Amino acid sequence: MKNTFLKTIGTAMAFLMLTVFAQISVSAQDDSTQPKTDDQTQEDLNWGHNNARRLEGVWNLQVTRINCTTGAVIATFPAMHVYRRGGTMDDFGAQNSPTLRGPGYGIWNHESGRNFSLSFQFFRFNADGTLAGRNVARQQNQLSYDGNSLTQTSIAQALDVNGNVLGTNCANATGIRFE
Q1: Considering only CA atoms, which of 97, 178, 92, 107 is closest in space to residue 141?
Q2: Winning range, highest mean pLDDT, from 6-10, 20-24, 154-158
Q3: DSSP code of 75?
Q4: For residue 99, how far is the Cα from the chain centroid?
Q5: Residues 158, 166: contact at Cβ < 8 Å?
Q6: pTM of model > 0.85
Q7: Closest Cα to residue 79, out of 97, 66, 64, 61?
Q8: Using CA atoms, how far apart are residues 112 and 5, in angstroms rounded to an integer?
């Protein structure tokens, strides 16, 4: 009985260790509508882990907020992103007054090739200065082949102070590296 119990515990622990420490490979899709040349395909393959840091730095963005259903343009405004080594990032958009919107803080991750995912949040305020809630954005970045420009798609939720979803916002952006 004791032997059977120890074997069961050992098997469970081995399975748990395998599950916890196994690496899972996930591949992001390149949403480019243009067919790639052989050189572009090879360049994507060569990017690898060493180039994941190419997103790091300061980026000037031109954001176009769109209707998530129809794609109609709602507003266009500048924004800035700072991507730091280690996977953290800062966001600041100029669509609203700084009295109505705080800076955004979040995380970024290299997915594969020239593709990166990021998430950030910022607080929103009422005109009287009281907290209105926060926005949480989830974005996908794709760097250009030279690493000096990017395209971005975004979906964000506006939440009230209790975390209830007030609405969903979508946007596209283009960016250039600030140097």
Answers
A1: 107
A2: 154-158
A3: E
A4: 25
A5: yes
A6: no
A7: 61
A8: 44
